[in-house]
Amino acid sequence: MADSIDALPFRLTTSQVVELAGYSARTLHRRIASGKLDLQPCDRGVENLYARQDVVRALRLEVREPEPTPFQKSRVPVDAIRAAQAASRNKRR
Question: Which end of the chain has less Cβ packing within 10 Å, N or C?
Fold first, then answer.
């Protein structure tokens, strides 16, 4: 759904929570009712709304650092690599 927890809205609908959890809305409601999932709606309406921090805590979502790009893995400064690429392009002209 989202690449980052910070990209999630502050309040998530039941549909968004089950997408993150990977199970159906019925299973979500059953786990909440049985106490296996410590999650309560913060607002009720047409669809229940859940606070983002409660969902992250209840589903034990972890913040993953993005994979480093090839430039970040390199020990050569990125500016030096870009300068070398620009120089090779200018030689071809």
Answer: C
